[in-house]
Amino acid sequence: xxxxxxxxxxxxxxxHLGHYHGALKNWVDLQSxxxxxxxxxxxxxxxxxxESREIIEKxxxxxxxxxxxxxxxxxxxxxxxxxRLPEHAExxxxxxxxxxxxxxxxxxxxxxxxxxxxDKDLSTYGFLGYPLLxxxxxxxxxxxxxxxxxxxxxxxxxxxxxxxxxxHLYGREVNxxxxxxxxxxxxxxxxxxxxxxxxxxxxxxGDEASLNGALGFVQSSPLLDSRDKERLEGYFKGxxxxxxxEPQVLLTKDSKLPGLDGAKMSKxxxxxxxxxxxxxxxxxxxxxxxxxxxxxKRTDVGDPKRCTVWQFHQIYSDAPTQAWVQSGCTSASIGCxxxxxxxxxxxxAEQQPMLERAQPYVSNPKLVRDIVDAGTERARICARExxxxxxxxxxxxx
Length: 398
Ligand code: TRP
Ligand code: SF4
Fold this sequence. Notes:
This protein is mainly alpha-helical and 398 residues long. It has helices spanning 17-30, 42-49, 53-70, 86-97, 101-105, 108-116, 125-128, 130-140, 153-170, 176-185, 189-205, 208-220, 226-237, 279-287, 308-316, 319-330, 336-363, 365-393, and strands at 4-9, 35-40, 78-81, 145-148, 248-251. The protein is elongated and about 95 Å long. Bound molecules: tryptophan (TRP) and iron/sulfur cluster (SF4).
């Protein structure tokens, strides 16, 4: 059984090379080794874009095309749409009951994003709940790993706390005490006494031998059925059962690819290169890139360290080309346009297979919808199962 991985992205615009190098490449890499679930977090997009629904609608399927272009293979991973699975909303609501508001107010992205996106009113209930909705996304699929960037690690941490709290509160059956008494009634009283004694010892001292002895006894007892055994084990260890699984973050290193102006690549900074950029706009964007300000005239020497184009070379060029840049720039034997050409060529070469993979989906959007439909139904099977367990644990199965 492969381990479960889950991650999502908000559909807020065409994906750019920063997304590709910072996240998608890693998603593609994981899909053959793990049981990967990747989803479009359209409700999360609404937390900040609730006034502009058309943006989200337009971007949902465009984003999935970018994923497929990057190399996600729907036969290897499960691609789905959050808003088609009301289970996410249900789990979010149920988790919300026991989640202290302070946990959410203390998540760093809460204040940061409110500061950053000053033009939007983010003092909403939905925005405060953003990380808890994310927790529901993750816990729904009992994901072991969540590949995200550093900025999301506090959300995964909150997810762990939510899971721990849930398991603590509801990890025991309804009417546990009564059922425990029924289980004990199946055993001779001297065995019950011995069990209780060794439980006490284990809980006080953590004594492994007591634990192993008791578990061995429970497992081999012909008087107990499997529910009894599970119940006694949980009681002995004092854990209850883990209904929700605490996930681990799988940190994706920040993309080393900056934006065209040297700042972080972002659509809103107008410094990005789309994953599926046309040849003409790609060329003109790179040609317009600022270079070392010391190179005013062609004959002025420069220093690659002061130039964003050099950072692109470090990702896209081989050693001989990099050496050519270093010596050409510092001796003014090459011009900046000349220097940019290998970068243009390398990005075009990187994009070529992406454009080819995207082509069938661009010309037949139904194919994309079918992929999302199929993935969503696969996810639904898992979501239903989790919600059945959750409802049962919370005593909601009446
Ligand atoms: N908050 C994530 C982001 O902005 C998107 C997201 C929503 C997500 N739910 C998730 C990521 C669950 C991982 C797991 O990038
Ligand atoms: Fe930048 Fe290349 Fe021009 Fe040097 S030659 S300033 S590295 S673009």
